[in-house]
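Mods, move this if it's the wrong board.
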Amino acid sequence: GVFQDYKVILPEVKLQPVVTRVRAATPRAPWTFGAALDWRPTPIPMAPDDADLARAEIWKIELPPVPPKAAVSDAFLEIRYQGDVARLYRERHLIDDNFWNGVVWTIGLREADPDWHGAKTDLELRILPLPRTFPMYLEQADKLRFSALGVADSLADVQVVLQYQLNLQAPLRK
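Not the wrong board. Structure tokens:
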């Protein structure tokens, strides 16, 4: 019949990124605030700009290539960090950014890097520290862990999660 059971086992592929701290963060500049709004009791903090990120902690992430015949259709970089904001770069080009919210930051590498599958990739991760006193609401603020210096600026984990692909061809009908 048309409907049949199939069982396929794909060989597992493991990609382990190499993560190296390049530079510690330096103290950040005070927040800048936008115009006051009648309906809001406190001013709105502005997002950090490039000058602010120049003070961020810098990490190098080396991603190994996917083996040529691996049945992998995409790879997702999962980053667990704490800080105000993080940015991910490849060759000085911004790939993605993320304001810390307590959720794992996931970046699809197929969309972010056209050569993600075939070559070793070096990425740069910048994490701007978040001081103990911050002017915005963070739903998961109780998850933050502050250093002795009173900042949250840690990189907990970087993983590559692979999405496998299997192409099936139905038998020809006679």
